[in-house]
Amino acid sequence: MISAIQPCLWFDHQAEEAARFYTSVFPDSRIGAISRYGPDMFLPAGTVLTVSFTLGGQPWMALNGAQAMAFNPAVSFVITCQTQDEVDRYWNALAADPAQGQCGWLTDRFGVSWQVVPQQLMERIHGPDSPGKQRMVAALMAMKKLDIAALDSAFSANPELEERSMSATTMCSVVHFEMPYKDRARAARFYSEAFGWKTEMLGPEMGEYLLVTTALPGARPHMPPHAALGSINGGLFPYKPDWPMQHPSVVIGVDDIASAMARIRQHGGELLGEPMDIPGVGRYVSFVDTEGNRNSIIQPLMA
Length: 303
Fold this sequence. Notes:
Blueprint: E1 8-11, H1 15-25, E2 30-36, E3 48-55, E4 58-64, E5 76-81, H2 84-94, E6 105-107, E7 113-118, H3 119-125, H4 131-141, H5 148-156, H6 159-166, H7 184-195, E8 198-201, E9 210-213, E10 251-253, H8 257-266, E11 270-278, E12 282-288, E13 294-300
Parallel strand pairs: 1-4, 5-7, 10-13
Antiparallel strand pairs: 2-3, 3-4, 6-7, 8-9, 11-12, 12-13
Helix pairs in contact: 4-5, 7-8
């Protein structure tokens, strides 16, 4: 019986190679019928035209279309996994470069995008909103291959606080920030060298985005007392036309504000005045980065 809907992957000349590769990766998979070009067609007679194959019981087709049609991440295929061993196996088998990828997405050697996703993650993503869900998403944003144990830890952290929060209006924590750059390499170099952030330059298909990771999954970064793991707390200040750069900014927690100030100067940033003491919070000073963004650093008073 022919499936009503089945994926068809368009290749230049790699249809059979790709089909045999994919059927070697997934269980319950096999090669089916192979059709070939005849005389006076787009490719020489005898060249593979289509390959029917099955992956995990699902019918697929690969086509040699005689001209290159690039794949991109706008279409991806989701692999649902039950264990970390499964996640590791599919990631390592499919990824063209296992060290690349983001948030469980990878690109294989043919340019096809896949998502390697634990079943429990999908259940929680589609479940009710909660502080645990927000923490889990924050941890996921910093990952390449997904780590089930780290996601579980982020989701389950401080259940007493979560139960208390869910009894009232749910707090939706900030888990991501963005700011503009003018020179991507320069911006990456500044934040890597001044603050140790990990950076990754994404390609044109992702808008030339500069992805930054400021803490390892599950790590507790420098933050004021009682701030929730995985959250970014903040505040709003009154708009004053005579103040410079009235726009959102990022506050970065540091161990030693004097050392951080020295690194900012060393790597091309400009400090805006001297540190000030914020009662009950810590020592704080603003700076301008190499791209003209106004941000700040704080040495928190830890509990």
